[in-house]
Amino acid sequence: MRPRHLAMAVGLAAVWGFNFVVMQVGLRHFPPLLYAALRFSLAAFPALLFVGRPGVAWRWVAGVAASIGVAQFGLMLIGMKAGMPPGLSSLVLQSAALFTVLFAVLFLRERLTRRRVTGLAVAFAGLLLVAYDFGLGAPVGPFLLCVGAAVAWGLGNVIQRKAAPPDPLRFMVWVSALSAPPLLLLSVLAEGLPSLSAPAEGWLSLGYVAFISTLGGFGVWGWLLQRYDASVVAPYALLVPVFGLSSAALFTGEDLSAVELVAAALIVSGVLYAGSRPRAVPRERVLA
Questions:
Q1: Lowest mean pLDDT among 20-34, 36-50, 190-204, 243-257
Q2: Mean pLDDT across the stretch 12-41?
Q3: Is residue 286 part of a domain?
Q4: How high is the pLDDT of residue 135?
Q5: Is residue 283 part of a domain?
Q6: Residue 285: inside a domain, yes or no?
Q7: What is the pTM of this model?
Protein backbone atom coordinates (compact mmCIF):
# COMPACT_ATOMS: atom_id res chain seq x y z
CA MET A 1 0.00 0.00 0.00
CA ARG A 2 1.34 3.42 -0.91
CA PRO A 3 2.29 5.72 1.99
CA ARG A 4 -0.55 8.16 1.22
CA HIS A 5 -3.07 5.35 1.10
CA LEU A 6 -1.60 3.83 4.26
CA ALA A 7 -2.11 7.18 6.00
CA MET A 8 -5.72 7.21 4.76
CA ALA A 9 -6.36 3.74 6.22
CA VAL A 10 -4.85 4.62 9.61
CA GLY A 11 -6.64 7.98 9.64
CA LEU A 12 -9.95 6.25 8.92
CA ALA A 13 -9.39 3.89 11.86
CA ALA A 14 -8.77 6.95 14.05
CA VAL A 15 -11.99 8.58 12.80
CA TRP A 16 -14.01 5.46 13.53
CA GLY A 17 -12.34 4.92 16.91
CA PHE A 18 -12.98 8.50 18.05
CA ASN A 19 -16.55 8.04 16.84
CA PHE A 20 -17.47 6.28 20.10
CA VAL A 21 -16.47 9.25 22.23
CA VAL A 22 -18.45 11.54 19.91
CA MET A 23 -21.52 9.32 20.19
CA GLN A 24 -21.33 9.43 23.97
CA VAL A 25 -21.49 13.24 23.74
CA GLY A 26 -24.56 13.02 21.51
CA LEU A 27 -26.30 10.61 23.88
CA ARG A 28 -26.21 13.28 26.58
CA HIS A 29 -28.73 15.28 24.56
CA PHE A 30 -30.70 12.74 22.50
CA PRO A 31 -32.30 9.40 23.40
CA PRO A 32 -30.45 6.54 21.64
CA LEU A 33 -33.02 5.52 19.02
CA LEU A 34 -33.73 9.13 18.05
CA TYR A 35 -29.98 9.77 17.84
CA ALA A 36 -29.60 6.81 15.46
CA ALA A 37 -32.59 7.97 13.37
CA LEU A 38 -31.17 11.48 13.06
CA ARG A 39 -27.72 10.11 12.19
CA PHE A 40 -29.02 8.14 9.23
CA SER A 41 -31.42 10.89 8.17
CA LEU A 42 -28.52 13.34 7.89
CA ALA A 43 -26.37 10.74 6.12
CA ALA A 44 -29.13 10.11 3.56
CA PHE A 45 -30.28 13.67 2.85
CA PRO A 46 -29.37 15.61 0.82
CA ALA A 47 -26.92 12.98 -0.54
CA LEU A 48 -29.90 10.96 -1.76
CA LEU A 49 -30.67 13.73 -4.27
CA PHE A 50 -27.29 13.34 -5.99
CA VAL A 51 -26.78 9.58 -6.20
CA GLY A 52 -28.45 7.08 -8.47
CA ARG A 53 -30.06 3.79 -7.61
CA PRO A 54 -28.11 1.51 -5.26
CA GLY A 55 -27.04 -0.82 -8.06
CA VAL A 56 -28.22 -3.98 -6.25
CA ALA A 57 -31.58 -5.57 -5.49
CA TRP A 58 -33.63 -3.67 -2.93
CA ARG A 59 -33.85 -6.72 -0.67
CA TRP A 60 -30.10 -6.45 -0.03
CA VAL A 61 -30.40 -2.76 0.84
CA ALA A 62 -33.28 -3.52 3.20
CA GLY A 63 -31.36 -6.42 4.76
CA VAL A 64 -28.30 -4.31 5.55
CA ALA A 65 -30.51 -1.45 6.78
CA ALA A 66 -32.33 -3.81 9.17
CA SER A 67 -29.20 -5.54 10.47
CA ILE A 68 -26.62 -2.75 10.56
CA GLY A 69 -28.70 0.44 10.53
CA VAL A 70 -31.50 -0.56 12.90
CA ALA A 71 -30.25 -3.53 14.95
CA GLN A 72 -26.54 -2.79 15.28
CA PHE A 73 -26.72 0.93 15.96
CA GLY A 74 -29.94 0.68 17.93
CA LEU A 75 -28.58 -1.96 20.31
CA MET A 76 -25.15 -0.33 20.57
CA LEU A 77 -26.48 3.13 21.40
CA ILE A 78 -28.98 1.75 23.90
CA GLY A 79 -26.12 -0.16 25.52
CA MET A 80 -23.92 2.93 25.66
CA LYS A 81 -26.78 4.96 27.10
CA ALA A 82 -27.28 2.24 29.74
CA GLY A 83 -23.67 2.50 30.88
CA MET A 84 -21.35 0.75 28.43
CA PRO A 85 -18.19 2.92 28.24
CA PRO A 86 -17.24 4.19 24.75
CA GLY A 87 -13.77 2.64 24.67
CA LEU A 88 -15.02 -0.75 25.79
CA SER A 89 -17.87 -0.50 23.27
CA SER A 90 -15.39 -0.05 20.44
CA LEU A 91 -13.54 -3.15 21.61
CA VAL A 92 -16.63 -5.37 21.96
CA LEU A 93 -17.91 -4.24 18.53
CA GLN A 94 -14.69 -5.64 17.04
CA SER A 95 -16.02 -9.11 17.82
CA ALA A 96 -18.30 -8.60 14.81
CA ALA A 97 -15.46 -10.14 12.81
CA LEU A 98 -16.02 -13.38 14.73
CA PHE A 99 -19.74 -13.43 13.96
CA THR A 100 -19.10 -12.45 10.34
CA VAL A 101 -17.02 -15.59 9.86
CA LEU A 102 -19.61 -17.78 11.58
CA PHE A 103 -22.46 -16.40 9.45
CA ALA A 104 -20.36 -16.69 6.29
CA VAL A 105 -19.80 -20.38 7.05
CA LEU A 106 -23.51 -20.95 7.71
CA PHE A 107 -25.05 -18.91 4.89
CA LEU A 108 -22.33 -18.52 2.25
CA ARG A 109 -20.79 -21.97 2.67
CA GLU A 110 -17.34 -20.48 3.17
CA ARG A 111 -14.67 -22.85 4.42
CA LEU A 112 -13.73 -22.91 8.09
CA THR A 113 -10.00 -23.57 8.24
CA ARG A 114 -7.86 -24.56 11.19
CA ARG A 115 -6.29 -21.08 11.18
CA ARG A 116 -9.68 -19.41 11.40
CA VAL A 117 -10.82 -21.69 14.22
CA THR A 118 -7.67 -20.92 16.20
CA GLY A 119 -7.86 -17.16 15.64
CA LEU A 120 -11.57 -16.92 16.42
CA ALA A 121 -11.10 -19.02 19.58
CA VAL A 122 -8.46 -16.53 20.77
CA ALA A 123 -10.74 -13.59 19.94
CA PHE A 124 -13.67 -15.24 21.73
CA ALA A 125 -11.48 -15.77 24.80
CA GLY A 126 -10.80 -12.02 24.78
CA LEU A 127 -14.52 -11.31 24.56
CA LEU A 128 -15.20 -13.59 27.55
CA LEU A 129 -12.45 -11.79 29.45
CA VAL A 130 -14.16 -8.44 28.74
CA ALA A 131 -17.46 -9.90 29.96
CA TYR A 132 -15.84 -11.13 33.16
CA ASP A 133 -14.05 -7.84 33.87
CA PHE A 134 -17.07 -5.68 33.05
CA GLY A 135 -19.45 -7.89 35.01
CA LEU A 136 -17.43 -7.46 38.19
CA GLY A 137 -18.33 -3.80 38.55
CA ALA A 138 -21.40 -3.11 36.39
CA PRO A 139 -24.66 -4.73 35.20
CA VAL A 140 -24.13 -7.20 32.38
CA GLY A 141 -27.11 -5.86 30.36
CA PRO A 142 -25.23 -3.06 28.54
CA PHE A 143 -22.45 -5.49 27.64
CA LEU A 144 -24.93 -7.99 26.18
CA LEU A 145 -26.56 -5.22 24.14
CA CYS A 146 -23.19 -4.40 22.58
CA VAL A 147 -22.57 -8.09 21.89
CA GLY A 148 -25.98 -8.18 20.19
CA ALA A 149 -24.90 -5.18 18.12
CA ALA A 150 -21.77 -7.08 17.07
CA VAL A 151 -23.91 -10.08 16.05
CA ALA A 152 -26.13 -7.80 13.96
CA TRP A 153 -23.09 -6.18 12.35
CA GLY A 154 -21.69 -9.61 11.47
CA LEU A 155 -24.97 -10.58 9.81
CA GLY A 156 -25.04 -7.27 7.93
CA ASN A 157 -21.49 -7.82 6.70
CA VAL A 158 -22.49 -11.16 5.19
CA ILE A 159 -25.57 -9.66 3.54
CA GLN A 160 -23.48 -6.84 2.10
CA ARG A 161 -20.86 -9.33 0.88
CA LYS A 162 -23.63 -11.27 -0.86
CA ALA A 163 -25.01 -8.09 -2.40
CA ALA A 164 -21.57 -6.92 -3.64
CA PRO A 165 -22.63 -3.30 -4.31
CA PRO A 166 -20.62 -1.67 -7.14
CA ASP A 167 -20.49 1.68 -5.31
CA PRO A 168 -20.19 1.31 -1.49
CA LEU A 169 -20.83 5.01 -0.83
CA ARG A 170 -24.02 5.09 -2.89
CA PHE A 171 -25.10 1.84 -1.24
CA MET A 172 -24.53 3.33 2.22
CA VAL A 173 -26.63 6.39 1.33
CA TRP A 174 -29.56 4.13 0.48
CA VAL A 175 -28.98 1.97 3.57
CA SER A 176 -29.12 5.16 5.64
CA ALA A 177 -32.35 6.23 3.91
CA LEU A 178 -34.02 2.89 4.69
CA SER A 179 -32.69 2.79 8.26
CA ALA A 180 -34.03 6.17 9.36
CA PRO A 181 -37.84 5.56 9.17
CA PRO A 182 -37.99 2.36 11.30
CA LEU A 183 -35.59 3.88 13.83
CA LEU A 184 -37.79 6.98 14.07
CA LEU A 185 -40.88 4.81 14.52
CA LEU A 186 -39.18 2.77 17.24
CA SER A 187 -38.05 6.00 18.89
CA VAL A 188 -41.62 7.34 19.01
CA LEU A 189 -42.93 4.04 20.42
CA ALA A 190 -40.17 3.59 23.02
CA GLU A 191 -38.98 7.12 23.77
CA GLY A 192 -42.04 9.29 23.08
CA LEU A 193 -42.46 12.16 20.68
CA PRO A 194 -39.06 13.42 19.50
CA SER A 195 -37.61 16.68 20.70
CA LEU A 196 -34.94 18.35 18.59
CA SER A 197 -33.98 20.95 21.17
CA ALA A 198 -30.32 20.29 21.90
CA PRO A 199 -27.22 22.44 22.39
CA ALA A 200 -24.60 22.88 19.71
CA GLU A 201 -22.44 19.99 20.90
CA GLY A 202 -25.32 17.57 20.36
CA TRP A 203 -25.74 18.66 16.74
CA LEU A 204 -21.99 18.71 16.17
CA SER A 205 -21.90 15.12 17.39
CA LEU A 206 -24.59 14.19 14.88
CA GLY A 207 -22.73 16.00 12.11
CA TYR A 208 -19.56 14.07 12.88
CA VAL A 209 -21.16 10.62 12.91
CA ALA A 210 -23.35 11.31 9.86
CA PHE A 211 -20.98 13.08 7.49
CA ILE A 212 -17.44 12.24 8.65
CA SER A 213 -17.86 8.76 10.10
CA THR A 214 -20.67 7.38 7.93
CA LEU A 215 -20.46 9.04 4.51
CA GLY A 216 -16.81 10.07 4.54
CA GLY A 217 -15.62 6.95 6.34
CA PHE A 218 -17.40 4.42 4.14
CA GLY A 219 -16.47 6.43 1.07
CA VAL A 220 -12.76 6.16 1.91
CA TRP A 221 -13.16 2.50 2.87
CA GLY A 222 -14.83 1.68 -0.44
CA TRP A 223 -12.21 3.69 -2.35
CA LEU A 224 -9.40 1.68 -0.74
CA LEU A 225 -11.18 -1.62 -1.40
CA GLN A 226 -11.41 -0.73 -5.08
CA ARG A 227 -7.61 -0.36 -5.27
CA TYR A 228 -6.38 -3.10 -2.95
CA ASP A 229 -7.43 -6.62 -2.01
CA ALA A 230 -9.75 -6.89 0.96
CA SER A 231 -7.08 -8.92 2.76
CA VAL A 232 -4.80 -5.86 2.54
CA VAL A 233 -7.35 -3.28 3.67
CA ALA A 234 -9.44 -5.15 6.24
CA PRO A 235 -6.73 -5.57 8.94
CA TYR A 236 -6.60 -1.78 9.40
CA ALA A 237 -10.08 -1.99 10.94
CA LEU A 238 -8.37 -3.70 13.87
CA LEU A 239 -6.91 -0.31 14.78
CA VAL A 240 -10.41 1.03 15.54
CA PRO A 241 -10.57 -0.29 19.15
CA VAL A 242 -7.00 0.93 19.71
CA PHE A 243 -8.06 4.48 18.87
CA GLY A 244 -11.40 3.95 20.62
CA LEU A 245 -9.82 2.90 23.91
CA SER A 246 -7.10 5.55 23.80
CA SER A 247 -9.45 8.42 22.86
CA ALA A 248 -11.91 7.36 25.57
CA ALA A 249 -9.10 7.34 28.14
CA LEU A 250 -7.88 10.73 26.93
CA PHE A 251 -11.18 12.61 26.58
CA THR A 252 -13.55 10.89 29.01
CA GLY A 253 -11.17 9.57 31.67
CA GLU A 254 -12.23 5.98 31.05
CA ASP A 255 -9.91 3.71 33.01
CA LEU A 256 -8.08 0.97 31.14
CA SER A 257 -7.53 -2.00 33.41
CA ALA A 258 -4.84 -4.58 32.81
CA VAL A 259 -7.57 -7.13 32.07
CA GLU A 260 -9.05 -4.90 29.35
CA LEU A 261 -5.64 -4.44 27.75
CA VAL A 262 -5.08 -8.20 27.69
CA ALA A 263 -8.59 -8.72 26.29
CA ALA A 264 -7.94 -6.11 23.60
CA ALA A 265 -4.72 -7.87 22.62
CA LEU A 266 -6.53 -11.23 22.43
CA ILE A 267 -9.42 -9.92 20.31
CA VAL A 268 -7.26 -7.94 17.88
CA SER A 269 -4.58 -10.61 17.48
CA GLY A 270 -7.16 -13.40 17.18
CA VAL A 271 -9.14 -11.63 14.47
CA LEU A 272 -5.95 -10.65 12.65
CA TYR A 273 -4.66 -14.24 12.72
CA ALA A 274 -7.99 -15.65 11.55
CA GLY A 275 -8.06 -13.27 8.59
CA SER A 276 -4.43 -13.72 7.55
CA ARG A 277 -3.04 -16.20 5.08
CA PRO A 278 -0.34 -18.75 5.94
CA ARG A 279 2.99 -18.15 4.23
CA ALA A 280 4.53 -21.59 4.24
CA VAL A 281 1.48 -23.81 3.74
CA PRO A 282 -0.44 -23.06 0.53
CA ARG A 283 -3.53 -25.02 1.47
CA GLU A 284 -5.16 -25.68 4.84
CA ARG A 285 -7.14 -28.62 6.02
CA VAL A 286 -10.85 -27.77 5.82
CA LEU A 287 -12.78 -28.44 9.02
CA ALA A 288 -16.25 -27.60 7.73
A1: 243-257
A2: 95
A3: no
A4: 66
A5: no
A6: no
A7: 0.85
